[in-house]
Design goal:
Rossmann fold, 13 strands, 2 domains, seven-stranded mixed sheet, alpha/beta
Length: about 325
Amino acid sequence: MLKKRTIGVLAGAVATALILAGCASDGGDSGSSEGGDRPYVALISKGFQHQFWQAVKAGAEQAAEEFDVEVTFEGPDTEADVDQQIQMLQTALDKSPDAIGFAALDSQAAGPLLQQAKDSDIPVIAFDSGVDSDIPLTTASTDNKAAAAEAAKHMAEAIGHEGKVALVVHDQTSVTGQDRRDGFVEYLEENEPNIEVVDIQYGGGDQAKSADLAKAIIAANPDLKGIYGSNEGSAIGVVQAVKELGLDPSQLTVVGFDSGKAQMDAIRDGLMIGAITQNPVGIGYETVKAAVDAINGKSLPKTIDTGFYWYDATNIDDEKIQAVLYE
């Protein structure tokens, strides 16, 4: 079953080319230099450790070329490095950009700097993760609660609508982490009375830490029927735990979020039943497009829903799915 909620999904060939271009880049600069006659948009992501962010970067660069603006794109070493991200945001503000795109690791910690941007008349566009503030003019992101609910629905179907499940979530400080947790749990509470959520752990999106957490959950719950990993690192950590423990994948259902080669391989190998993929190229594209609109004084919607899909072994090679997967 294919679940689709999307706007402006780029064509498969374009998306693939952009992602390859993004992956070839080596870090925080898009290849452009801020300044000059063109407007400058500084983008601060949550990290570079996952291919998701390279795909977001590729979409941002495509929009920058289309709308004739300069962009830089950077993020902390890991998605646990809140202090590093805040310093990057401060450095970006010090350059007086025409607009800021920001994917908050910790929306509370970012508050003072977002206020600084507002006081300096620098429009802020949130992306990927909402910010607990009314300062961002819009948020370009997946409807994470709806997407997590879709993952929960497939988990319930796979385990026969009964049994114990657990979650390994990437964090509890970002809106993304909260929504992907709550959307999953709330769906089960409202629709699956015979499924019990026995544990929720937070691994910071780190594969090794998530694997250790998953192994501990499994040891404490030998009758566990499923684990959900809320982002690329979390999901692959769960898969790694299943491998290291030598478990039969048919006895423990794994559901993920995001894509990346490791998750795609896990689905093809039967170690994971499926996952939610976002539209990262679209997120990057829409963030820059919204920044340009803000610079030009145009009104923006409160949110820009960039869409999501469920993918599994039955549709992973479909053209529509391939266009939004990122390796």
